[in-house]
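Why do we care about 3D structure at all? Because function follows from shape, and shape follows, mostly, from sequence. That is the central idea of this module. The next example makes it concrete: a single protein chain, its amino acid sequence, and then its structure expressed as tokens.
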Amino acid sequence: MIQIKIAIIGWGSLIWDSGELKIIKPWQPNGPKLPVEFARISNNGRVTLVIYLGRNDNPSPTSWALSTYDDLGDAREDLRKREVMPDFLNVHGVTKEGAPIGPPRGLTTVFSTVRDWLKKRDQLDAAIWTGLESNWEGTPEIEQPFSPIAVVAYLKGLRDEKLKLAQEYFVKAPRGIDTPVRREVIKKLGWTPAEEQGKPLAP
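And the structure:
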């Protein structure tokens, strides 16, 4: 079995709540810049960050951590479990040589960006990340097409625990994640990043 060094790329809750994910901490802030956006409705009502090839031409910085596993199958399974996904088809990745890991789904620019990032790091051989997509259009309670204004309207409709969890996610997301949705949420709801409030990114 070939042993390789595998980076796990993160941009959302993985960074402040890695759970049982087997990584060598801490997270490093110099990951590849990727087109992420708050565009997925989670089971608990939060609007979470996913790779989104929409109208955001300003890719955001990501973070990365070294997996303790040196086998791609084991590392992908570890990330799948942390993300509570039924299989690891949504664990995407690429090797330094450019071989895609998982179905690319037309995200060739993302694969190329990560591959180019890997080429600049002698200590890494491959990278993997959560490849979940936006489910905005398919969520029953959503009545408007995806847009920053529509996300704010959705968040304003949340109550109690769902509202608390949604706000917590936005506040804890790294301040480098600068997207149209986040700017609108800060403007209309005042949910500024915890780092700007002098608070740590803790679970």
